[in-house]
Amino acid sequence: MTWVRDLKKRIKYYDETSVKPPSLFLEQALRYANGTTAIDLGCGSGSDTKEMARQGFKVIAVDINKEVANYFSKKDRDRIKLVIQPVEDFKFVRCDFIYAKSSLVFLSPKKFRKVAMEIKKSLKPGGVFAARLWGKKDSDNKSRKNYKYTFLGIEELKAIFDGYDFLAVNEHEEDKACADGRDKHWHFLDVIIKKTQEV
């Protein structure tokens, strides 16, 4: 799904985020991550993807919007393979680290569970999954859009990833505008999950 349908607004957002430093959430997740292979689901303009590569990961960066290719140089492609495809259609491979900052929320609950199962299968033992998800108190959960997106409670998420170690669960709320300009109440769940064995 294209989360901002207006191309000009989307490119403006990518231009702004492409020059920002890597997210604090990624920095936290990378403290737990080991190995050499990573997948970035919903890579956008790539500041987080490039940080993973800088820290030694070979990264598969997945995004539905073809214009994100403009933010990756030829040099970036040495360690980053860009795949333009919806996350739910991506063919997962075995890897050590999977990162999804605000991309999986745009899947319907059915598609989210399908992708979650693929994530569980593709992570190697000791692998880490880090995601920013939306909680139940997010204002879009009360709108006509709620059937298209995934909103989770912590216990529901723990049931989906039963048998995995939850290394960090940070829940926070804030009021601020979306990338498309709408005012919104955000309810975030930042989770870092480790696969300790084959489940």
Automatic annotation (TrEMBL):
One of its GO terms (molecular function) is methyltransferase activity. InterPro entries: Methyltransf_25, SAM-dependent_MTases_sf. Keywords: Methyltransferase, Transferase. Residues 39-127 form the Methyltransferase domain. GO terms for biological process: methylation. CDD domains: AdoMet_MTases. It comes from the Bacteria. Signal peptide: none annotated. This is Methyltransferase domain-containing protein. It comes from Candidatus Amesbacteria bacterium RIFOXYB1_FULL_44_23.
